[in-house]
Amino acid sequence: MKLNHTMLRVKDLEASIEFYTTFLGLKEAKRHAIGDEATLVFLTDEDESHYIELTYNHDGRDYELGNQFGHMAFVVEDLDRIKAEVARRGWWSRESRPEVGSQYIFVHDPNGYDIEILQAR
């Protein structure tokens, strides 16, 4: 069995695409419209081994973040560059605690989902 994709419901499709592509460096792999009901956008990294499906429903419904979902994590080569970008954009960030033993930050995507960004070792 192989993990294929993770679906996130989004409130603002364009802001979400910009966050995941421009900031996190993912690329849009495909887009699929389900009539007038929804638009699905699949994003992936350079390995193309896993996709994030952004689902935007056109009926204007709102979503609440539950307390069951934790976060998604991404690994970067230069965490200091990412920290500078987060500061430049004025995004919320929570940094790692020294006792944890790894360097990371948390930011919120445009929908409020927690995103962990880890320094590659």
Keywords, separated by commas or semicolons:
single chain; alpha/beta; 2,3-Dihydroxybiphenyl 1,2-Dioxygenase, domain 1; 2 domains; four-stranded mixed beta sheet; 8 strands
Topology record:
Elements: E1 5-9, H1 13-23, E2 27-34, E3 38-44, E4 51-57, E5 72-76, H2 79-89, E6 94-95, E7 104-108, E8 114-119
Short note summarizing the structure:
The chain has 121 residues and is of the alpha/beta class. Helices cover 18% and strands 37% of the residues.
Kindly state the percentage of residues in helix: 10-25%
> In percent terms, what proportion of residues is strand?
35-45%
Tally of separate helices: 2
The helix-and-strand class reads alpha/beta
Quaternary structure state of the chains depicted? single chain
Task: Give helix and strand order, one letter per element, not per position.
Answer: EHEEEEHEEE
The CATH topology of the largest domain is given as: 2,3-Dihydroxybiphenyl 1,2-Dioxygenase, domain 1
Task: Give the averaged pLDDT, no decimals.
Answer: 91
Radius of gyration of CA atoms, rounded to a whole number: 15 Å
Net shape: globular
The largest sheet has its strands arranged as 1-4-3-2
CATH homologous superfamily name of the largest domain?
2,3-Dihydroxybiphenyl 1,2-Dioxygenase, domain 1
Note the main sheet. 4 strands, mixed
CATH class of the largest domain: Alpha Beta
The CATH architecture designation of the largest domain is: Roll
Number of strands: 8
Number of domains: 2
User: Which parts are unreliable, with pLDDT below 50 for 5 consecutive residues or more?
Assistant: none
Taking the alpha carbons of the first and last residues, their distance comes to 28 Å
